[in-house]
Each structure stands twice: as structure tokens, then as C-alpha cells.
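Deliverable D4.2, example record:
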Amino acid sequence: MNLKDKRIAVLLSGGVDSSVVLYELVRQGLQPDCFYIKIGPEEKEEWDCSSEEDLEMATAVSHKYGCKLEVVDCHKEYWDQVSAYTINKVRAGLTPNPDVMCNRLIKFGAFDEKRGHDYDIIATGHYAQTEEAVSDSPSVNSQQQKWLCTSPDPVKDQTDFLAQIYDWQLQKALFPIGHMMKEEVREIAEREHLVNAKRKDSQGICFLGKINYNDYIRRFLGENPGDVIELETGKKLGQHKGLWFHTIGQRHGLGFGGGPWFAVKKDMQQNVLYVSKGYDPQTAYKKDFMFKDFHSLIPPTTQLSLLNYPTITFKIRHTPEFHQAKLEDLGNGTFMVHSETPIHGVAPGQFCVLYDDIHHHCLGSGEITL
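Output generated by the structure prediction step:
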């Protein structure tokens, strides 16, 4: 892609990845505009948020390369959309992924509405790649489309976090470090003496900073004690403080001796958490599960659909591993996944992210329903 005549916006987070993105673009003779998206909480005395340090880092890097930096306040949009999505899913006993929705609704959504619409390209520090997909058929619209493709770094690959973005958002997206390994990015940052070259990667949900996730959930939903029961025996082991503090497949934090114990099932009607004992309980695994509302990232120009992929690979959480499976179309955007191997911790509300059989093209994602 020729970027010389493109208007480019770079989203700087304060981290090393987006900083190297800016370096890479400037190295090519480009002069993009930089933006820092503010989404952190306002109650500074109550929430330990690292956004002030993030902004300082982003400012230093933009100044180093002579680019202007603008702060775009998406606080309200984040808390009205992403936070509401998270709380509503958790309240219903599901396992949401706020970072997935942040990309769709904020980084490529609310930002585009406020400032991004003035730019042809939005560049981010995601570990992902894109490829052109142009149909040879004269009957198909010749408009250029893109595939979302995995990064060569299996640990850092972030296509799973991008698998709910809209097609028009993908068309504007640019991932300048997506072809690199994390070690390469660090080496560039250190060589160029970037202020955040040795800064640790952020962990957990993007807006929480150092805040404990359970404290965040407790703030909005409080506590709702109920029984904890061993699934195999029906024996009552104690009480939980609220089903929303637990996820399917969870091992740590259950607080019972004689374990290990795994959370394997939630009964929302009776407010009961079921657990199984042992390091490898079969009840913690599934080979067959359903997902709904498939969001396709297959370029329209290819005239392909999921039905063209009898064998796929998939993941249900941010891990380096991909799993082989076959798909069964149940109609109305609902599919059954038949995995070749048992999968640990399959939970309703998670996104099942689908790839081709060599996990190169990301095909899209759907919400697991079991």
C-alpha cells in the first residue's frame, strides 16, 4: 500500500508497541498525526489508574518525532458501551471480553466518529496483519478488501481481540508492527532510545489499570451469596459471594481445601456454583459447543462463507494455541463446533474466534452459548 498520499492517524497508548509504530511510519518519511484515547475512570481518589503515565509516555514519543499529539476523550463512550456490555454479561452469568469490544466500539468506533473520520488510515500497535483480497470474477465488485491475518508471534498475536471489528474498520486499519516478533519491537525501541523501551506490557482489562477485577464487579453488582456444590456428589462445600466473581474453568480463588477445585457450572436460577475436584476433571472440558451471531471477517470479494471451511482452527481465549475442529451449521448464524481435542474452560459469553485450517486468515467470531 502506498501511504505517501494517505492521511494517517496513529493511536498512541503510551506503550512500546504503538511507539514503535510511530517510529516505523516516520522512518518511511511519513508525518502522521498522533492521538491518545482517554478512557480511564474519573474518580482518581478511588481508582488507581495509570492513564497519566500513559499520556506522559505518548507525549514524549510524539515530540521525539515531531508529530502533534491530541487527546481524544472517549471516557463516556467507553463506560456507556464497553463497561455496560461487561456488567450486563457478567450479571447474566456469562464471561465477556471487554478488550474485544473496546476495539470495535472505541479504538475503531468512537474515535472514528470524533476524529478518525478525517483520516484514511488508523494505525495501531496490534500484533496482526492484513492481506489484500481481490476477486478475479468480473461480476464481483472490484473494490479492494482485506483479510485479517495472524502475526508470526503466536504469543502476542491479537487477531482474537480484533475479530469483532466491522469490515469498514478493517479497511482503514494498519498494523505496522504486525509482521514482527515482540523481541524485534523491543530491540527497535531500545536502539532508538524510546522512553518506554523497557516498560512492561499492560495486563488485564485496558481501563482498569491496577484495579482488582472483582473489586470492579463488586462496585456495580455487589455480592449475592449462594451455595458451592460438588457436581459429582452433590455435597455442599461452602458459599460463594456471587456467581459473577467466578468463571467456568477457574481454579484459583475458590477458597476450598483438599483441592484443587475447578468451577465447572453455574446455575443462575438457584444461584449455585458447581465445582469438580482434581487436576484434570473431565467436567472441566468440552469437545462440542455452540456459538451464535457469527460476525464474519471473510472479505465479500472472495465469495466465501464458513461453509467453504469444513475444517477450521479456533481459540476461545487469548492463548498461543489453536485447536482443530469441524463446523456444523445449525442455521440463523449459529454453529456447532466439534473440536478434535477436549477444550478446557469453555464458557458461555466467550468469543469463539475462527481461522482457516492453517490459522492464517481470521474468519470472524461468535459468542459461545453451549
